[in-house]
Specification:
Length: 287
């Protein structure tokens, strides 16, 4: 999944087409505001970032806004931090390029693009190759420090394995951490974006109040539009943290309604922390 941030419509279309030609899904933004909204809700593999950006649509682009967005992307925690390729018309100014790399960019390419080493396609392939190699090295180091592969896999399956013996225990917390909300599944902490947390919490609340009954997503105010996209994002986020959970415990009736098949007594919540989500807390209290 890629994010292209570019305020020039022609270049935005060009880079987007390049990403799509590589078989990658792509989202686009033309301002810092638009990019931050997407970054809050979607986990991207990499970002192609124009350094000269407007703060909002229709505003005048400035370099400092691009550098500010670069800092925000670099500061994303852990696995949410994408690879970053800076695109700049100031490629001949080595001070700008040096500043971008020191700030945390993985690479930069000059505009206008050429068809060689500094094309978007070449830069993307090189970035993904480097990140794949780094991930393999990290996995090898982890395995070396935590025991053999069998032990490591067993540790990572702890939450999933515990579900095999019965329904998982869900504890809704809702505390904000870097604009994400937390819950616990069999004692393991999960972090979801606010929209995904609230969507999952709606399913949990419905399961607690009306066990075995499906909830129509048309009745969920958090996703008044983009229902399918919101569900897909929630599913991917849950599967990344607890593989197998969605397919085992969430059912779709084929008509846009979903059911979290967890007994009501397996769903608990932190009343103090959930005060940040007052309407959800009110529904839980009624149950």
């Amino acid at each position: 999944m890629a994010l292209v941030v570019e305020d020039d419509p022609t270049l935005l279309d060009l880079v987007t087409e390049t990403v799509e030609s590589l078989g990658h899904d792509v989202h686009a933004a033309s301002s810092q505001e638009g990019a931050l909204a997407l970054l809050e809700d979607i986990m991207f593999d990499y970002v192609l970032l124009d350094l000269s950006l407007p703060l909002k649509e229709g505003r005048f682009p400035r370099l400092e806004i691009g550098f500010n967005l670069l800092d925000r992307v670099v500061a994303l925690p852990g696995a949410r931090r994408p690879g970053i390729i800076v695109m700049t018309a100031h490629g001949d100014d080595h001070e700008f390029c040096r500043r971008a790399l020191l700030a945390g960019a993985d690479d930069f390419i000059k505009k206008p693009f050429d068809s060689g080493k500094e094309s978007p396609e070449a830069a993307i392939k090189e970035l993904l190759s480097k990140r794949a190699a780094a991930a393999q090295e990290a996995a090898a180091r982890y395995e070396a420090s935590h025991g053999d592969a069998g032990t490591m896999a067993a540790n990572e399956r702890r939450a999933s394995d515990s579900m095999d013996s019965g329904p998982p225990a869900i504890h809704l917390i809702g505390t904000y951490d870097r604009r994400r909300c937390n819950l616990e599944l069999n004692g393991k902490e999960l972090l979801l974006s606010e929209q995904r947390f609230r969507l999952f919490a709606r399913l949990a609340v419905h399961a607690k109040r009306s066990p075995g009954q499906h909830l129509s997503l048309l009745d969920v105010p958090e996703i008044q539009s983009g229902t399918r996209q919101a569900l897909n994002r929630l599913r991917k986020d849950l599967e990344a943290q607890v593989p197998g959970f969605w397919d085992r415990w969430i059912r779709n009736d084929g008509h846009g309604s979903y059911c979290l098949q967890i007994p009501s007594d397996s769903i608990t919540y932190d009343a103090d922390a959930m005060m940040a989500h007052s309407e959800l807390l009110a529904l839980l209290a009624k149950g």
